[in-house]
Amino acid sequence: MNPLFTTQSEPFRTGTDNLEFFYKRLVKMKNGVLMFCIDGEADITLDLEQYHIVPNTTVMILPNSIFSLTSATKKFRVHYFAYSDEMFKAACFRLDPPFIHFLKENACYTHTDKEALRAITGLTEASSAIYRDSANQFRNTIAQNLLQIFFLDTYDKVQRLFTQEQIEGSNRKDELFKKFINLVHTHCITQRDVAFYAEQLCISTRYLSAITKEIGNTTAKEIIDDFLILELKVALQSTGLSLKEIADKYCFPDQSFFGRFFKKHTGMSPKAFRAQKT
């Protein structure tokens, strides 16, 4: 099993890795991972965003994010602190939803401040020490507390260094757009009708479409389809589900409809995408 994956018996893990497992492979992370680049450089994709990683860069992968390594130098290494979804919820239950969304939108940060570097290296050292201390009866609780300290410290810095407008959006349209993205991320597997999201936001489909065009420079339907295609690629790459099973799981009328939808958006059939070498 990949070391960045947690289990019920091991809700957190730490160590160093070159992320080779994720090279040109889309993986939906059930757990979260805090990574800190200690050597080399790399390019990654996280959900629909691309990032360039250099030494002293922190990468925050929250549970249910889709992650891939697109390129890396031979020296590339990260220290990782992988934590279960349950541990994440317990560590963050007091923090505002806009802050969590802010972390998703700003998943990578390269540290230049010495105090910040000392804080993140202190966390990696402390998490590694408690991970090695397997006989400690409070091991998981200590790891959860370390994770909570990191999030609380990050929350404090975000509140001090960024304005509320930057965190929550500068106006009502920004706020609605961010909520829409969150909803799509959660519901795109089963809901791909713009009307569903407009209803959840208590606005008209026309107004939602106008917001996505103004802020995202695209249509609401295109955003929904982009997220869905990403989920479908993960299912084709990382599961043994048959094409029919994928069509059923993602609520397509039949396998043929699924195939046409996928080819329209990617230029290749699901079978061809699955067969291509990575």
Any descriptors?
Jelly Rolls; globular; about 280 residues; alpha+beta; Arc Repressor Mutant, subunit A; about 50% helix; 2 domains; 5-stranded antiparallel sheet; 4-stranded antiparallel sheet
Please tell me about this protein's structure:
By secondary structure, this protein is α+β, with helices and mostly antiparallel strands. The chain folds into two domains: 12-165, Sandwich (Jelly Rolls), CATH 2.60.120.280; 172-275, Arc Repressor Mutant, subunit A, CATH 1.10.10. It is built from twelve helices and nine strands. The protein has helices spanning 85-92, 97-105, 114-132, 139-161, 164-168, 172-187, 194-201, 205-215, 220-238, 243-249, 255-266, 270-275; strands at 12-17, 27-28, 32-39, 42-46, 49-53, 57-61, 66-72, 77-83, 108-110. Strands 1-8-3-6-9 form a five-stranded antiparallel sheet. The protein has a four-stranded antiparallel sheet with strand order 2-7-4-5, covered by helices on one side. β4 and β5 (49-53) form a beta hairpin. The chain is globular, with a radius of gyration of 20 Å. The model has no long low-confidence stretch (mean pLDDT 89).
In the sheet with the most strands, the strands line up as 1-8-3-6-9
SSE order in H/E notation?
EEEEEEEEHHEHHHHHHHHHH
Could you name the CATH class of the largest domain? Mainly Beta
Task: Report how far the terminal alpha carbons are from each other.
Answer: 19 Å
Q: Secondary-structure map with pairings?
A:
Layout: E1 12-17, E2 27-28, E3 32-39, E4 42-46, E5 49-53, E6 57-61, E7 66-72, E8 77-83, H1 85-92, H2 97-105, E9 108-110, H3 114-132, H4 139-161, H5 164-168, H6 172-187, H7 194-201, H8 205-215, H9 220-238, H10 243-249, H11 255-266, H12 270-275
Antiparallel strand pairs: 1-8, 2-7, 3-6, 3-8, 4-5, 4-7, 6-9
